[in-house]
């Protein structure tokens, strides 16, 4: 089976639980139609749609779904919290790795003897 073919919306349908609450727009990989209110999102994809359902868009760029059931709203909020938590963990891990690498480089610098460079025409014994 060929990977990467088809629209992004259809390919990701299996990956994100929020897809069960919307339909992709044919020939628009970021377009979504809300199953609850019928609102058509031409762009923004599934993440933007989650803000529509959860009413948690900090930038206030998405219209809140007026017909979303409370349990669905809470489910989507939990998904967004899990995603934020995963992002924070990843950032912390990356910070640890960078610090370990920096410390390793410092240790190597301390262990190495000083190396002097001489001009090609200069005799080091002089």
From TrEMBL:
Naturally occurring in which organism (per UniProt): Perilla frutescens var. hirtella
InterPro entries: Znf_BED (IPR003656)
Keyword Transmembrane helix: no
Lineage: Eukaryota, Viridiplantae, Streptophyta, Embryophyta, Tracheophyta
Assigned keywords, A-Z: Metal-binding, Zinc, Zinc-finger
Pfam family, one: zf-BED
Name the UniProt record assigns to this protein: BED-type domain-containing protein
UniProt-recorded Gene Ontology molecular function terms: DNA binding; zinc ion binding
Annotated region described as Disordered, given as residue ranges: 102-126
BED-type domain span: 16-55
């Amino acid at each position: 089976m060929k990977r990467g073919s088809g629209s992004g919306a259809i390919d990701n349908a299996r990956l994100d639980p929020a897809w069960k609450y919307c339909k992709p727009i044919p020939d628009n990989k970021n377009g979504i139609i809300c199953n609850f209110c019928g609102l058509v999102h031409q762009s923004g994809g599934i993440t933007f749609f989650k803000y529509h359902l959860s009413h948690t868009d900090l930038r206030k760029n998405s219209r809140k779904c007026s017909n979303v059931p409370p349990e669905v709203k809470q489910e989507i909020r939990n998904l967004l919290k899990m995603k934020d938590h995963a992002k924070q963990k990843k950032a912390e891990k990356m910070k640890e790795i960078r610090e370990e690498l920096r410390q390793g480089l410092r240790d190597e610098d301390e262990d190495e003897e000083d190396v002097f460079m001489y001009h090609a025409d200069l005799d080091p014994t002089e």
